[in-house]
Amino acid sequence: MGFIENCEEELKVKFKNIEEVSYFNQKKVLNAFRSNKVAVRHFNGTTGYGYDDEGRDCLGKLYAEVFGAESGIVSPHLLSGTHALTVALFGILRPNDTLFCISGMPYDTLRGVIYGKNNGSLKDFGVNFRYCDLKDDCFDYENIKNSIDESVKIIYIQRSRGYELRDALSCEQIGEACEFLRGIGFNGCIFVDNCYGEFVEKREPTEVGADIIVGSLIKNAGGGLAPTGGYICGKSKYVDLIGKRLTAPSIGLEVGSYYGGYQYFYQGLFLAPHTVAQALKVSLLIGQAMWKLGYNNYPSMEKSPCDITRAIEFDNADKMIDFIREVQYASPVDSYVTCEPWDMPGYSDKVIMAAGTFVSGASIELSADGPVKPPYIVYFQGGLTYEHGRYALERILTKLNK
Fold first, then answer.
1. Ramachandran class of 93: left when φ > 0, alpha when ψ lies in -120 to 50, beta otherwise
2. What CA–CA distance (Å, rounded) separates 4 from 338?
3. Kind and range of the H or E element at 211?
4. Which of 6, 165, 238, 398 falls 20 to 30 Å from 230 in CA-CA distance?
């Protein structure tokens, strides 16, 4: 039996657990499709104001039900995860409010949104910001309690690691944090960046106490088919405010057309539980192989992943770059391209990124990236099919052995 086959044999129980979660979530999604009476007419595009855009309205209701929320916005006009988060934060926060992040510093591209200078940031509009680091990958409850005052309007939680070397947060951890916050009297909005975490577990943050969750459709929730877009789901009072920021205060969610049609948004959500399961299996296979070769990676193989990303640590830049290049060479799109570190917008260090994807930048597809600086960490994610990830691993192992 070969090296990869041994890894697969060792992962049988974990693979079975992933399949169980996938089946649970597939039923949840399918039941939401049935209860919302999704029909062919919902796939049609509209023009102009979009007053009669049934596809848009139904899609928001569908996502809300899947995520156990009161209301939802799902829109191709949300251009990325960062944009969706920005719209949601600006929709809820007001001058002199405080945004308090309890999962450490938010990831790089959101920092300019929060406290950039003279760029239209929240800070420019009088919104204050503070944060509290995690403690041993858990919430630092004592510090959190001491940092909350009447100005705190949003408690912000980033579920995934971003470019930090920590494990993703589980819905159990997020639920405990929500219970703690309500227990100490916090009555504002508990806001979760849910990117990379959708359908990894049987529950979503809005099912364990979060008021708002936000994500990108070119990650988990779009199932590899959504060509663009983002979603925002949660309590109606917050979703309504956010809708007025997405369009205009006097209009809200009554308008918004999309001529291209919505089939891939619906179909992508239907496929998402299965697609996420494929990505999780790829993550575990890569993790098991790299661990057996002596490379530290996170989450450890003793833990169940809480998102689709995996962080792999290398001792020098060359190995890191080789790994990422092999992911690109194994891609169906732009496989002939050799990745190079570059000054990517929104990041303070040069970043190297492999993304030979059908949807540009889609990290539910097989991809890998990271800032080229010590410690040399590759952030690996995705894989629409397990077979694709396995093939990429074959190439990576050949390169590393050389």
1. beta
2. 26
3. none
4. 165
Contact call for residues 320 and 43 (beta carbons, < 8 A): no
Angle between helices 3-10 and 263-292 (to 10 degrees): 110
AA identity, residue 281: K
Q: Per-residue confidence at 223, pLDDT binned at 50, 70, 90?
A: very high
pLDDT tens figures, 205-215:
999 999 999 99
Q: How far apart are CA 118 and CA 235, in angstroms?
A: 32
Q: Is the pLDDT of residue 402 over 70?
A: no
Position 162 confidence tier, pLDDT thresholds 50, 70, 90:
confident
248 Cβ neighbours under 8 A, 6+ residues apart:
none
Classify residue 79 as exposed, middle or buried by CB count within 10 Å of its CB (0-12, 13-18, 19+): middle
Burial 210-232 (b: 16+ CB within 10 A, else e): bbbbbbbbbbbbbbbbbbbbbbb
Cα–Cα distance, 91 to 347 (Å, whole number): 25
Distance CA 234, CA 211 (A): 5
Give the H or E element holding residue 364.
none
Section 254-270 average pLDDT: 97
Q: Report whether 224 contacts 333 (CB < 8 A).
A: no
Cα 217 to Cα 67: distance, rounded to the nearest angstrom: 14
Pairing of strands 310-314, 376-381: antiparallel
What contacts 102, CB < 8 A, 6 or more positions away? 131, 132, 139, 140, 144, 155, 156, 157, 177
Which parts of 184-267 are beta strand (E)?
Answer: 189-193, 212-216, 230-234
Q: Whole-prediction pTM value?
A: 0.96
Q: Bin 199: left if φ > 0, else alpha if -120 < ψ < 50, else beta.
A: left
Rounded to 5 degrees, what angle do the CA atoms 231, 236, 241 make? 75
> H or E segment at 194?
none
What is the C-alpha to C-alpha distance for residues 197 and 171, in angstroms, rounded to an integer? 9
